[in-house]
């Protein structure tokens, strides 16, 4: 019985120091990275706003196509050349990318200016044209 108590006491001690050790590690983890923490005024702080701005930067061609152009260009509505249809796109691609982009931006017959995406930049419309052209070769 005495031995049993000793053993229990030992377990408690070992257990306590183990808990102590692991919370030390947790504290170290929390206070550790002086080099990784970005303090205002440090050079690393300048990088943060750039990363934040990138997420609201220009949409990709695929994104613009899917949200703004696919309504007509995946179905052929109003006679739109279907994205992925090489035969329909070949004669258009022959005009050159610059002409295609300009037609997409300014409108061309039943193709409405900017595909009706009034908040699309020239760059975003151009990226969407390139996305369709690449998909239709
Ligand atoms: C309301 C339907 C509609 C939407 C939306 C639309 N298009 Fe079109 N698009 C057309 C039609 C119709 C044509 C064919 C015009 C023609 O050749 O007479 C066309 C043609 C084009 C052409 C070929 C122009 C040429 O010179 O042959 C490009 C490039 C193009 N669209 C890009 C886009 C892009 C990029 C978007 C999205 C930002 C878009 N379109 C959204 C209907 C649409």
TrEMBL record:
Residues 56-136 form the Cytochrome c domain. Coiled coil: none annotated. The keyword Metal-binding applies. One of its GO terms (molecular function) is electron transfer activity. Residues 1-21 form the signal peptide. The keyword Methyltransferase does not apply. Keywords: Electron transport, Heme, Iron, Metal-binding, Signal, Transport. It comes from the Bacteria. This is Cytochrome C5.
């Amino acid at each position: 019985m005495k031995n049993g108590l000793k053993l229990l006491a030992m377990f408690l001690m070992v257990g306590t120091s183990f808990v102590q050790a692991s919370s030390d590690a947790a504290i170290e983890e929390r206070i550790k990275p002086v080099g990784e923490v970005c303090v205002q005024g440090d050079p690393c702080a300048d990088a943060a706003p750039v990363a934040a701005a990138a997420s609201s930067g220009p949409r990709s061609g695929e994104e613009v196509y899917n949200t703004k152009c696919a309504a007509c260009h995946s179905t052929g509505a109003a006679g739109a050349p279907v994205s992925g249809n090489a035969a329909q796109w070949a004669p258009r691609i022959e005009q050159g990318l610059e002409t295609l982009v300009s037609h997409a931006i300014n409108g061309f017959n039943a193709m409405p200016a900017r595909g009706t995406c009034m908040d699309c930049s020239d760059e975003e419309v151009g990226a969407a044209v390139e996305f369709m052209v690449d998909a239709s070769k």
